[in-house]
Amino acid sequence: MSFGTPDQFSRAFSLAWGSRDVGTLAAMFAEDADLLTLTGAWAEGRKAIADVLAGELAGAFARAKLVTGRTKLRGLGTGGAVLMQRFVLSGIRHADGSDAGRVGAVLNAVMVAGEDGWEVVSASFTVEG
């Protein structure tokens, strides 16, 4: 599943994250994409991205919510873009089930235009600070 324009990615990502829709999340990435996740896992390829996200969304982020903050989108010619998206992440649980509180996170994504729309080729989702 690609998306129509780069500025649609943040909302689509946030909605898929909130509904724990790993298939939709992974489909936003190119077949050979790379992702560094919030937990520090590095996934190479769409299947690995789906596997890692499935584990994270079933674990510490099972109840987590993303609220979008500041967005910076930079075009790279007609077929590329770089996005920096700030989120506030809440609902994270420690291993003992206690609330981990809110954290700021930044999703940095490199996107390219393809035949069916835009897709992410590389992304890092990291905790701020």
Structural class designation: alpha+beta
Biggest sheet architecture:
6 strands, mixed
Whole-number mean pLDDT: 90
How many strands appear in the DSSP assignment?
6
Going across the biggest sheet, name each strand in turn. 2-1-6-5-4-3
Output the number of helix runs. Answer: 3
- Cα end-to-end separation: 32 Å
Q: Can you give a write-up of this model?
A:
- The chain has 129 residues and is of the alpha+beta class.
- It has helices spanning 9-18, 22-27, 46-58, and strands at residues 29-36, 42-44, 65-75, 80-90, 103-114, 117-127.
- It has a 6-stranded mixed sheet.
- The longest helix is centred in the middle third of the chain and has 13 residues, at 46-58.
Summary keywords:
globular, 3 helices, single chain, 129 residues, six-stranded mixed sheet, alpha+beta
Summarize the structure.
With 129 residues, this protein is of the alpha+beta class.
Question: What's the SSE blueprint?
Answer:
Blueprint: H1 9-18, H2 22-27, E1 29-36, E2 42-44, H3 46-58, E3 65-75, E4 80-90, E5 103-114, E6 117-127
